[in-house]
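ingest -> validate -> predict -> emit
validate: passed (alphabet ok, no gaps, 59 aa)
predict: started
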Amino acid sequence: MKPLTRTITGLVFLIIFLTLYFQGSDNTLYSFLEGLSVAIGIIFMTRGLYELYKAKNVK
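emit:
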């Protein structure tokens, strides 16, 4: 997966988290999906941004 694609995917997962969070449901499945989506989103965004930074600084 390319770094920019990974970063955008992470952003999509964070948007999914926000939509689930603002629905305000106390359902256990929603809570699990919120935690999963925020974890995947943060991991993908940090890896993507790091790889973009690394690729930019390698000459």
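The chain has one domain: 3-57.
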